[in-house]
Give the backbone structure.
Amino acid sequence: MVFDRIIPVDGDPVERWGGIGYAVAGAAATLPADWGVRVVCRVGEDLAAEATRVLAGMPRCERRLMAVSEPNNRVELRYHDEADRTERLLGGVSGWLPDDLIAALHGCHGVLLNFISGHELDLDGMLALRARSSAWIYADMHSLFLDTDVNGTRTPKPLADWSARLSCFNAVQMNENEFELLRRSPGGPAHLEDVLDVGPSLAAVTLGSRGARVAFRADGRSLVREVTLPASRSGDPTGCGDIWGAVMCGRLLAGEGEVRAAEAANRLASASLDHHGVEGLVERLSDVSLDEGGGMFLDSATEVEL
């Protein structure tokens, strides 16, 4: 959970909650009706009560928040256009110890691991989680591609030990710029489908208003599909990637095919452009059909191999 200060291209700065709040809202609004969401998060003591209040307003969320003595993370997002922005990270919430995280996730069938600060879990922690958890794990890699200097300014960087990190996850997500950084990493993949060779069964690259590109295996082959948006929209893009990942992860867990899952993720992320912040977002997303035929929830009786 981070507290965002958003500086748009035009207009006055806005301060509000962000971070995994967007993903939690996306999951709460779109998972099958009899599924639950467990929110596992380390938060600074200075904002722990406020974080609890925000999450308490989201339905079917079980909260496992660990208050820590460090100041909560705050992020300044300065937009240069609808896609490009610079970030400054303040605060200092430390990462998870593997034992604590694995205990907090006990009993979960699926995990969405969202790297908001990039410090949530180091490589040893990722390897321990993979070795000791039977859950299906989806990772939004976002901030693993960011360095943070002493002033909090964040700059893009390639990903060291990328193949070892990605081998810990069943599915991975990044945006277009982050995939280029992955390609420039030592021994990085030349093509998106090459990511599948190190372990994940799905790799997704979000493309902003153009939709997404997904690579996955089917019938023994590696396939890549462009999943476009029906129509381009403008608005506030903050949190779109987090919502996209939550919807994509949930649809895959519930047995939906990769392309249709990406179509639903596109639709919900696009719908969030006219909503600011995480408060009230569940209600906004609940009004959006997951498929063009209507009907919000999948049949949770569908057999899912986990």
